[in-house]
Amino acid sequence: MFPLVNYKYEVPEGTHLGAFGSIRKHDIHTGVDLYCDHGDSVLAIEAGTVIAIEDFTGEKANSPWWNDTQAVLVKGKTGVFLYGEIHPTVKVGDSVLEGTLLGTVIPVLKKDKGKTPVTMLHMELYSHDCTHSVIWNLDESMPAGLIDITDRLKIEFARIAQ
Fold first, then answer.
1. What is the Cα–Cα distance from 13 to 31, expressed in whole angstroms?
2. What confidence tens digit (pLDDT) does each residue in 30-68 have?
3. Cys bridge to 85: 45, 108, 155, 162, which one at CB 3.0-4.6 A?
4. How far apart are the C-alpha atoms of 119 and 11, rounded to whole Å?
């Protein structure tokens, strides 16, 4: 299942700023940004259990150049999916089904730079043993347990685009 309804963009890849592994000012991008509108519903890609809710961006997450947002981590059969830059509607310990509402997207960028929308769902995928998000520092190898989610998102997007 694709995590956003009525998604109108492509899944970022390659050198796109929202793609997995893109070089950023402060780090290397650990996920894929799915550009969308403020308030869009975020749905679970697959069934699982909410294992964590984290402060994801903003001052509380030691990235004051962005607005305060949170991330929901759901452990399922594939691994641990992170749904970031949202306002959660679930709590730790909740069991969710595929398609369960996890939260709504909120603006992450403090100002519109004209390059991309200011709201996006940030998606990451980790191995089953991960319990929290990681930072991929510049000039370091990809963190253990982090998995490129691009292909999974492209497969799910292709299903809804038909």
1. 10
2. 999 999 999 999 999 999 999 999 999 999 988 888 899
3. 108
4. 15
Map residue 16 onto helix, strand or coil: coil
Residue 36, token pair as written in the block: 């969308």
Strand, helix or coil for residue 61: helix
Dihedral Cα 61, 67, 68, 71, nearest 10 deg: -80
Write out the two tokens for 91: 């709590």
- The pLDDT value given to residue 110: 72
Count CB neighbours of 15 within 10 A: 9
Distances (CA, A) of 82 to 51, 53, 92, 124, 156: 10, 9, 13, 5, 16
The whole-angstrom separation of Cα 79 and Cα 23 is 25
How far is Cα 112 from Cα 22, in angstroms, rounded to an integer? 20
Parts of the chain with a pLDDT under 50: none
Structure token pair of residue 22: 């893109």
The Cβ of residue 150 has, within 10 Å, a number of other Cβ atoms equal to 19
